[in-house]
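Entry, Tuesday afternoon. Goal for today is a structural model of the target with L45E5XJ5 bound, before we commit to ordering more compound. Inputs were pasted exactly as handed over by J.K., no edits. I checked the ligand SMILES twice against the vendor sheet because last time a stereocentre got dropped in transcription.
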Amino acid sequence: METTIIGIAGGTGSGKSTFTNRLKQYFGDNVTVIYHDNYYKPHDDLPFSERQDMNYDHPDALETGLLVRHLEALKQGKSIRCPVYDFTQHTRSDRTILIQPSRVILVEGILILQDERLRELFDIKIFVEADADERILRRVVRDMNERGRELENIIEQYLMTVKPMHYLYVAPTKNVADLIINSGLNDVAFDLVKTKIQQLLSQG
Ligand SMILES: Nc1ncnc2c1ncn2[C@@H]1O[C@H](COP(=O)(O)OP(=O)(O)O)[C@@H](O)[C@H]1O
Ligand SMILES: Nc1ccn([C@@H]2O[C@H](COP(=O)(O)O)[C@@H](O)[C@H]2O)c(=O)n1
């Protein structure tokens, strides 16, 4: 089986997951989703207070080599066990998820277009764009509701690492994207990508 891998990048809060999850919801088991976030290094040898203060927006924060190996295995028709990251604990959980090979794989994450090995594996590269003020507002709500964070910590982390790393490592990757999407809720972009995936699936 041929495999097509689509990378979906964009800054934090840009709407990457919203766009990716909409495609997953539409295609169900015909499409597999892998989140780079699950490949954050665990650092479970360090106390919580130290894990809390780390820079999670630098490429070195992620075990991207493992993601590369997993994508290569899926392309070869092998299943993989994907780690599961726990944002409330700043480390990986004990769980892994069994992921089966499929015709189309979506890979989502802030830094996926920054890594040359990943770029080589992607057949289609998408960047989801959104203004910085909207992204941080969404992140505040999301991190407080879903990631167990407090407002003060979110603001400090944003100013110390998230914002500078975004402009150093994430924003420039817009230039290597095949497609730049204005918002994760963009219906036209969704229809275009949906049609492309339908075409790939019908080719088998
Ligand atoms: N265009 C949009 N308008 C309003 N809210 C949005 C939009 N895109 C995403 N959101 C919301 O913002 C939050 C972060 O979006 P998400 O897709 O998780 O971002 P990312 O994966 O890029 O960090 C979610 O709660 C989502 O529902
Ligand atoms: N322990 C961690 C690990 C990562 N982050 C932040 O997650 C952001 C990426 O995820 P998105 O869903 O927002 O794209 C990234 O900006 C990291 O700062 C974290 O807060 N804690």
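The chain is about 45% helix and 20% strand.
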